[in-house]
Design brief:
2 domains; Rossmann fold; 355 residues; seven-stranded mixed beta sheet; Quinone Oxidoreductase, Chain A, domain 1
Length: 355
Amino acid sequence: MSSTTEAPVAPPTMCAWVRPRRGPASSALELATGYPTPAVPTGSSPDVLIRVSHVSLQFSSEMLMKTLPNLPLTGPWVPEMELSGEVVAAGENAPAELHDLGSHVIAFLNVPSAVLMGHGVLAEYVRLPGCQVILIDGGVDMASASGINCSGSTALKMIRTAGVREGHTVLVNGASGSVGSVLVQLCKLRGAHVVGVASGGNEAMVRGLGVDEFIDYRKHDPLPAYLAHQYGDKPFDFVLDCVGTQALFANSPAYLKANGALINIGALEGICVSTRNVLLNSWLPTWLGGVPRRYIMFSTPPARDDAVYLARLVEEGRLRIPVDSVFDMEDALRAYERIATKRARGKVVVKVHNG
């Protein structure tokens, strides 16, 4: 049944976090209580109106809030790009499975809408094209489901780019983080031998994800020296770095196969230093001091096909999205503080609506 025949059930205004000025979340974000609710999709619209349940925060959000200006004519800048929720209304041209009102869904924004335009999802209701909305079983935890899209798509692209398969040995640096925790599980599903790196306090969590070996980077500092000693005679096929540690690549010939690669998605050392490192790592010839190993870094916008695949894995119990903490909508600033510690074990989530 299409929601175009139903009376609107969303209130005319809602709560949404907006950024009226540049700066860190603590000073830049404000909770707007009279923000206009998106219009109900009607007629031949392909859009879906969603009552937001949970929003998973991105580590990069704070950096964007500090650097990107508010563009003229775009309206208030609302952060975040992935969510879980339930269908309130759907236009006639939305996917057929999204016409059942109350169905549980996960959804994501495309990068231009989320980053450049600031049309984010940290709000009580959002309206999105149906191609960015995926049905999910009602029994899946909604806090966990909200984090499927971004971390899952990134992890999936990392293992596909590397070509991880049965018989490979891979190192996952940052195995307790939002991407690393998914990456470990996907590598194990492909039959790889996984060595996970995290702090000792996260060992139980990381072992619970299925790693074959665990390394406490605090205990074995400097980490590259330990890897060279421990794995020099049995080097890794791939190093998957979710942290962005330059020393891990610079010293990689001691523990990474000559035909292997280091794939990095992290920027631990800051955006300027990381940008310089990417350029040097990717283009500096070996005869000028370049590291004789492949270095790969990329951005990974969410994709519908990836989200559908990952959602099915979650529904089947073959993949779980670890959740570090859940904060109420009014406490979203505390959620950003938690991410800023760089100690989160899995996703940091804001609960927008109860139920």
